[in-house]
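User: Before I run my own analysis I want an independent prediction to cross-check against. Here's the chain; please return only the structure tokens and, at the end, one sentence I can use as a sanity check.
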Amino acid sequence: MEAAAACKRLGHKDAADTRKQEKYGMENAKKERFVKEIRERNDELFRKLGDLIRINSENFGATGNEKEIAYFLGEAFGALGCKTEVYSPLEIEGITEHPDYYPGRGLENRFNMTAILPGSDHSKRLMMAAHLDTETIGELSTWTVDPLGGEVRDGRVWGRGACDDKYGIAAVWHLMQLLRDEGIVLPFDFIFTAYCDEEKGGGNGSLAACLKYPVDDVLNLDCKDRQIVASGAGGGCMKATIATKEPVDNCEVLLDGIAVYREVIDKFRQRRHDELMQYPRFANSIIPDTAVRFQSIRVGADLSLNRTQVGICFYTSRTEEEIYRELDEMAKELSEKLEPLGMVFEGFEITTRFFRFAEAAYDNPTMELLKRSVKKVTGEDQDGIAMCLSDHPIYVNWASPRALSFGGGREFGEYGGAHQPDEFIECENFTVFAEILGEFLMNYGDLY
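Assistant: Structure tokens:
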């Protein structure tokens, strides 16, 4: 009797395991079909990006053109069954007192769009995010394509924002479309934010998204070459002004002042290099060796012959207060060294927000899933790397300690790269990027 009962229990267990395996198999088949659809319908992906490029959303610093595209996306995602909201960062209670708020950005007319696709379990929430503002178009004569054309040609999608960062928006729009068409209900709430004011040292759009929508994990879709960013350097940009005490009839004397400035900045550069080398993800990157970058040297012309301005950006792991104390000491040193040359140091002017340093948690199941997703789609081995002066630290500090940045954009310094004339993204790389996101999305629910 006992043996018969045991066999019966075993039979029930085998049947339950079989049903579980069948269900698991069906779920796997659904996941595989979803990722496959991304490529099979990638013409829709390219068209979506073209539609976004044709809406001008340039960021001018103190103002921006994000309003039209934010409302356009609100309608587009709303049509897919998402709950959507278009809002200015200024609508977030207490944001103007927040330590990462950056004033003077004309936020009254700049907007985020957030779309929420409810899942079967509301206790877990994943956010993907991408910025909807672009760098300015610049001189039209430097472009050989229409910067607002969104043309698909020669295996590329062309136009301002194609690889920084409208491709990230288009990819999630495409995923949301497929989720609706396939009738897939995710086992978590999926949130997407297209945020304003990222370029030119912004950050208010990301901050607003973090404060308004608490989540468990974030993928910020803004970097290059399918890299996984887990660390973000702090720092910012600034300019320094040196002037002669007396009027001069030529600006050659200011070259001596620039040489003194460089001596002081070289010591500042070495300190930044040494501190960043203490972090493995930075030590294995080019960031410590480029911890100070000269961006501009202006002398004469509209500054007058007796004045020069030098602009730099710098990367650091130090706090804002620590850096400002250094700058105060450097200002004193410069004043003392310039005095015998008949010059004065007129001070430093910070020209961006101060970017805070942040590293995502090392024990990070979200990162492991993203690495597996990249590996499955491409065969590539990616690991968490470091990035400089991005919104990544905002997401780590104010949304999730596991927040990552991930992207398929292109280098700033190459033809058609981010911020360059003739900006483009390769259609194949764009498709692969979307496939990786789809693979990640289909398996994110298994983390919990």
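Sanity check: The radius of gyration is 25 Å.
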